Amino acid sequence: MMVGMPRFVAENARLVVVGMLVASAVIGAGVPMVERSLSLDQFQTDDEAADALEYVAANFSTDGSETTTAQVVVRDENVLDRETLVAVLEYERALWDDETVDETLVDTHSVAELVATAAITEERDWTNATRTKIASSDTGAGPPDPERASDIDAQLDALRSLSDDEVERLVGDVLAGDGNRSSQALTLLPDYYEPGTTETNATLLVVTQETPGGSFAPGAAPDELEASQTAMQDLAPTDGSLTVLVYGDGIVSTEITDSMVDSVLLVGPLAVAFVLIVLVVVYRDLLDILLGLAGIGLVLVWTFGTMGWVGIPFSQPFVVVLVLLIGLSIDYSLHVVMRYREARPSGEVAPSRAMAVALGSVGVALVYVTATTVIGFLSNLASPLEIFRNLGLVSAIGIVATLAVFGLFVPALKVELDGLLERHGVDRVKPAVGTGGGSISRLLGVGATLATRAPAAVIVVSLVVSGIGAYGATTVDASFEQSDFLAEDPDDWVKDLPGPIAPGTYTTERAIHTLEADFVRRDTTASILLTGDVTNPATLERLDAARATARDGPVTATYADGEPAVTDPITLMDRVAAANESFAATRSAADVDGDGIPDRNVTAVYDALYRVAPDDASNVVHRDDGDYEALRMVVTVDGGAADVAVQDQLDSITADADRDGVDAIATGDGVVNRLTADQLAETALTSLFVALASVLVVLAVAYRVTEGSASLGVVTIAPVAATLTWVLGTMALLDIPFNIVTGMITGLTIGLGVDYSLHVTERFVQELASADATALALRETVTGTGGALLSSAATTASGFAVLLVAILPFLQSFGLITALTIGYAFLASVFVLPSLLVGWVRIVGRGADPS
């Protein structure tokens, strides 16, 4: 801290306290202004694929209106027997009867309906009306039908009137047929179903719903859709007749919101509880504990109040900032309090005098730590992702607030309260951790002993371990998936926690795993967008070649009968021509060579397609005021396929279509997510180099000015670089990727690492000026400042370790890796840095004999 400030704070404690409280009231007024943002588009940046995704959402629709599809996984011992088919229809009937669900409900589609329809018609073959319904359901379309509820009643009556054997025969007829009727039914059965058999343990119920307000980003579904899909899950039978899992945009959005709230309510109190336990062990003083907790609260008020004033919304990754500031606040508090206790070995030293000495001693280190940690977090401003720029900015604001609170408010308040209590006869002299001998002092002294006896060996071992970590760092992947934001269903013991902090039940993650393992997920689609001269016959020829590539691709999902999940204008033409003679004649007249692809009058063919099947046509052909501007191929990819394999296939498809006046680009949530993942990796690497270089320059200049040696700054940053390699190597070993929060780990590691190293270096320089030998200066450093670092590391690591019980997987991995980061930073500063400092002393000839 600046010269004279420590004395001013200590001697004008009451004025400082009042001033900080007034400032806190003003800044804290911004807390109610903090808004919440959960939409996943906040993690995306401007990109060609992202722009194409917006274009597709705005200009293509399945039925001319905005709809979405929910997939309901139904499980039972045999979902094709009479009892379960009836139960499925009863569940569908309950959906139509429920006011919340019915508000958005457009249509339902299931194997139970198809079997019941066959029972009603009493025919082995299906009627054209049934065939048309099945075809339209494949695209998730279909206009609202006020007769649907009564239709289901009729279907229920039909199934109930039949025997088990009669229903089994009908099931066999429905599922063993050939052509369109069988293939469409098989889209609702798992990929392990054997066509023609009448037994399987799972099926899908597809529910089409309106989306009030139009299109929306993942995680930001309209309230009506959230309510309806939550109600769909609640309406599931509870009598054991069947198991139901609902998956759709609405329930995903609901669980993203609930998981964030539950995470804050669960992690916040537990973090405080763990910190409180550590503080009780370390401080052993009620007043210091309360001051520490009050300081944490004030830091959070300043941070989130500033967010409210500047308009930065709170989203999922900011849970990490919450825990981060709790940990760093205690870190600052421990250094001030322990140094204060060291400066006051007896009651003869007044509180104000001891605090002035403490702040004068540790204050410079705190300012350096704050500056370098802020640099570490502000390195995220170089990220292409706005969310990371906001995270870096808010974290930097929080660190500055931490310095203000624990460098001004808490010390001033402690001086006032200690003085008040002592005037009433209460002894306020307390020992500092690590200074009274015992096992802690002996443990901390190991670093000093190794440094004076074998510094070269310590440095060599550190370099070897760092080299291994650096190699592992090259294999760390990046990940950005919708599932990253979905909570796993918590363990029972977590649900049994006291009411306010006990999380709810989460099913979406399990539904995703089931769909990926057994079915074709309807939300894992990629769109190949073609713009330009789309009425040119050559465009359709290239589209046909691209379609062949898509259908034969290794990552294209297939239905139970082996049919690839690909939809495009040519596929639609084939289906419509099979059901409509008029359109078949129009296409045939335009098909000169008889290959099924129009060779002339393409505009007329599109016109006919829109007349006959406008809903389906609008899903793959974009028309604006009569002009045809774009085509779309929809490829459903295997949800478990590797990102690289998916991207390679999409590149091959677009290469077939992109030429001669037509631009083709692959887009979709998966494509954009892959780009976001790449940007996460870019953020981590950029922040690494920017932060390291910036901190190195700052420390070199600072120590050149204050100690006459820029090399001391290099020595101080070296353990931080080592810590970084250890952290990244551990991420590789544990298969932890860069995600929306671990992408911050490089900046965080630099910030925390510099914090620990700076305190050791600053204390060492102070002790070296008066010590008879370097060894003595090192021992005083590692047992004095090292004790505070040990307490801080234990406290901060405990706070982050609490994230291991969080219900969001990305928070769990971040908690683990950050706790390890803190441990590594402590080890590097107490056991590696002393050896580097000895080397520095010997090279520059500073101080006394190292021995």
TrEMBL record:
**GO cellular component annotations of the record:** plasma membrane
Alphabetized UniProt keyword annotations: Cell membrane, Membrane, Transmembrane, Transmembrane helix
Q: Where are the transmembrane segments?
A: 264-283, 290-312, 318-337, 357-379, 391-413, 684-703, 709-729, 736-754, 788-811, 823-843
Instruction: Give every SSD domain span.
Output: 290-416, 712-839
**A Pfam family name for this chain?**
MMPL
Membrane topology per the entry is: Multi-pass membrane protein
Q: Where is the composition biased (Polar residues)?
A: 129-139
Q: Where in the cell is it found?
A: Cell membrane
Q: Name the SUPFAM superfamilies for this protein.
A: Multidrug efflux transporter AcrB transmembrane domain
Instruction: Read off the InterPro entries from this record.
Output: MMPL_dom, Mycobact_MmpL, SSD
> Region Disordered: which residues?
129-150
Please indicate which superkingdom the organism of origin belongs to.
Archaea
Q: PANTHER family attached here? A: MEMBRANE PROTEIN MJ1562-RELATED, MEMBRANE PROTEIN YDGH-RELATED
Family per similarity comment: Belongs to the resistance-nodulation-cell division (RND) (TC 2.A.6) family. MmpL subfamily.
User: What protein name does the entry list?
Assistant: SSD domain-containing protein
